[in-house]
């Protein structure tokens, strides 16, 4: 039974002591290697999704030849997970080897003024929420013995370049083991823009490069660090700003990608593609320097991302990216929020050009580097991650499961209430804290081997498996002393709207700089489409007429088509009928515009319908009642990427009288 295995393997003190013993025993195997310490370069991309590189055959738009070049030197992991679907929690996990459930940073609030070192409970929450949301820690406590401190104490020069987002002084990289920190910036992204002039404090662009890109500059600074320390071991922590907001890039690259946009490809944002290329160029600069200095064969390189790709910011009139075939994106508990690229290069120890399907997580890198370098952990130091050395040798990991703890619910497409998940083999269970009846938890169960897109929830038909996996979650939360959500004593069922779970609109980029806004407007790459058969596409989709049907290509998030009726319809009960096939995902919605009410389409004038996303045509009848004349209708057929076809669309009264039929 799985529970028996849990008792043997899962997370208790015996596991931590056992791992400590394992590391200590391994010292004898690596003593010779430790006499010649390899350099370590850790490259952490920001918001880089699983489908944002060419590593996995999921993109034809983005170009990442240098990341491919890096992969050719080591091992690529196909099942690499961030510790959180948001950045700061994962960054803290990389530096400590601990889960966000244990270190307490569960939300990216480390740039805010208030400094808190531990997570705390919230006793109440809004009346429309079933559970409370804990308060995240907002700084990485200097009591933790970080990865950088470990390297520094073992004779390494240590340098941090790029994004930090774990707190300003006295919680900056300089207080966490780094000798060098540039640009010494505590914000969530680059200051002002990627292209100079920037707004960093005491860190200006090169006056001879008026349009200097911050990633070019960070790579240049990293090169100088490697050059000055090429005669001794160094730990280079290059945490890229790319490809986090603000969405900004070199104009020449944007222009190049604008010419390559395919409106049928859910990845069609030229600004984002340009950002990807600059990120990849920086990787190339690091590799070129290692080669030029003659130290590539004596340098470990780790490349990973802090969370999934950002599908939910609107850029160039579309979503920034798409994580298809994964579901969801950054800040969600679905695969697109936590699965990303990962590569480990270790010449002479990791076979070049190999791949591994072993499941790994951000917490694993610290114990892996300890074992590889034959360095003992501190007394009483433990990890939630495990050493990846067996996987790097091409062997299986002795791992039962990984866990993702995210007790928050940002209002974005695909959002879930506060949750925790477990990956065990091909199975993934998401526990929604107190999301069921009478304060009980709710669950979503997926078989990722058969259903990578997490379209089919098996929780109701496999209750025994849910119980076994949920017991693993209980063990994990108990072991990490997690500050978990509580039942909300102020919950009001009358204000609860479960149909809104997973439904939200794309977000503005948040760039308030007027010059940047004007630039963005001038760089629009996708011209607004003209109506087809009177239907106007909007949000994250493209519309075409194909074989007498409306053919919608959805990029995920918020695809919709709307139609202004030739005359107002005054009946107080209406039914929109249509035939639709879809291979996307998510619930469908019908909106309507009523005379005298604004805005035209609003969540208060919306009804949801369930969609069978099986690729075959189905008949749908969506009805609603109104108080005023109806002027227009809108169909939101899905929330995920895919292809959707609609035919035989007509509007009838509640008693079946046809009011309007669309001629396609």
Mean pLDDT equals: 90
Output the structural class: alpha+beta
End-to-end separation in angstroms reads 57 Å
* Share of helical residues: 10-25%
Radius of gyration: 26 Å
Strand fraction equals 15-25%
User: Outline, from the CA principal axes?
Assistant: globular
Largest pleated sheet = 9 strands, antiparallel
Total strands: 23
Low-confidence stretches: 1-35, 510-528
Count of discrete alpha- or pi-helical segments spanning 4 or more residues? 14
Summarize the structure.
It contains 14 helices and 23 strands. The chain is α+β, with helices and mostly antiparallel strands and 664 residues long. It is globular.
Give your account of this protein's structure:
It is a single chain. The protein has helices at 2-9, 13-34, 65-71, 87-96, 100-103, 147-153, 214-228, 251-258, 270-292, 335-338, 365-373, 389-392, 463-480, 514-522, and strands at 39-45, 75-81, 157-162, 180-182, 234-239, 299-305, 314-315, 318-319, 339-345, 354-361, 402-406, 419-424, 427-432, 442-447, 536-546, 549-569, 573-582, 588-594, 606-609, 618-625, 630-636, 641-653, 658-661. It is an alpha+beta fold and 664 residues long. The strands form four sheets. Strands 15, 16, 17, 18, 19, 20, 21, 22 and 23 form a nine-stranded antiparallel sheet that branches. It has an eight-stranded mixed sheet with strand order 4-3-5-1-6-9-2-10, with helices on both faces.
């Amino acid at each position: 039974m799985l529970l028996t295995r849990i008792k043997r393997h899962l997370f208790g003190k015996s596991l931590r002591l056992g791992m400590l013993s394992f590391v200590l025993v391994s010292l004898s195997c690596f003593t010779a290697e430790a006499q010649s310490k390899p350099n370590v370069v850790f490259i952490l991309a920001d918001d880089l999704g699983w489908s944002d590189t060419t590593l996995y055959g999921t993109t034809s738009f983005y170009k990442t030849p240098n990341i491919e070049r890096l992969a050719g030197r080591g091992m690529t992991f196909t099942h690499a997970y961030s510790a959180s679907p948001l950045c700061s929690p994962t960054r803290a996990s990389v530096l400590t080897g601990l889960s966000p459930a244990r270190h307490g940073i569960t939300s990216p609030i480390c740039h805010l003024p208030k400094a808190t070192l531990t997570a705390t409970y919230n006793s109440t929450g809004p009346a429309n929420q079933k559970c409370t949301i804990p308060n995240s820690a907002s700084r990485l406590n200097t009591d933790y013995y970080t990865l950088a401190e470990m390297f520094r104490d073992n004779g390494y020069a240590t340098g941090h370049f790029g994004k930090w987002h774990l707190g300003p002084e006295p919680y900056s990289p300089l207080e966490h083991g780094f000798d060098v920190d540039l640009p010494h910036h505590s914000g969530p992204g680059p200051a002002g823009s990627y292209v100079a002039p920037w707004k960093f404090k005491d860190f200006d662009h090169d006056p001879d490069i008026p349009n200097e890109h911050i990633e070019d500059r960070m790579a240049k600074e990293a090169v100088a660090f490697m050059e000055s320390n090429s005669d001794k071991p160094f730990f280079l922590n290059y945490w890229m700003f790319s490809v986090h907001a603000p969405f900004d890039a070199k104009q020449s690259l944007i222009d190049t990608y604008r010419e390559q946009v395919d409106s049928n490809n859910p990845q069609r944002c030229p600004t984002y593609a340009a950002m990807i290329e600059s990120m990849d160029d920086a990787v190339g600069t690091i590799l070129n320097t290692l080669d030029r200095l003659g130290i590539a064969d004596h340098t470990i390189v780790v490349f990973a991302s802090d969370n999934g790709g950002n599908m939910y910011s609107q850029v160039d009139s579309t979503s920034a990216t798409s994580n298809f075939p994964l579901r969801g994106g950054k800040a969600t508990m679905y695969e697109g929020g936590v699965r990303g690229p990962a590569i480990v290069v270790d010449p002479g120890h990791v076979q070049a050009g190999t791949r591994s399907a072993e499941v790994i997580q951000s917490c694993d890198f610290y114990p892996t580097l300890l074992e590889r370098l034959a360095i003992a952990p501190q007394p009483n130091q433990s990890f939630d991650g495990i050493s990846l050395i067996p996987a790097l040798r091409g062997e299986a990991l002795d791992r039962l499961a990984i866990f993702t703890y995210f007790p928050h619910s940002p209002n974005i497409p695909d959002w879930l209430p506060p949750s925790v998940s477990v990956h065990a083999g091909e199975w993934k269970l998401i526990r929604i804290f107190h999301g069921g009846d009478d304060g009980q938890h709710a669950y979503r169960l997926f078989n990722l081997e058969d259903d990578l897109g997490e379209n089919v929830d098996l929780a109701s038909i496999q209750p025994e498996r849910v119980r076994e996996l949920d017991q693993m979650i209980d063990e994990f939360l108990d072991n990490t002393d997690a500050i978990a959500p509580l039942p909300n004593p102020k919950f009001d069922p009358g204000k609860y709207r479960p149909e809104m779970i997973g439904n939200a609109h794309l977000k503005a980029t948040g760039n308030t700089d007027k010059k940047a806004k004007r630039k963005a407007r001038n760089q629009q790459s996708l011209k607004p489409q003209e109506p087809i058969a009177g239907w106007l596409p909007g949000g994250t989709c493209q519309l075409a007429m194909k074989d007498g049907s409306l053919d919608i290509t959805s990029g995920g998030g918020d695809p919709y088509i709307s139609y202004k009726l030739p005359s107002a319809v005054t009946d107080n009960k209406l039914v929109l009928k249509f035939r639709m096939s879809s291979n996307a995902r998510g619930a469908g919605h019908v909106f309507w515009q009523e005379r005298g009410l604004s805005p035209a389409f609003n969540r208060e004038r919306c009804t949801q319908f369930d969609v069978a996303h099986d690729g075959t045509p189905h008949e749908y009848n969506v009805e609603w009642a109104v108080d005023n004349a109806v002027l227009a209708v809108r169909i939101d057929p899905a929330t995920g990427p895919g292809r959707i076809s609609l035919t035989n669309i007509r509007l009838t009264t509640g008693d079946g009288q046809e009011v309007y039929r669309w001629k396609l």
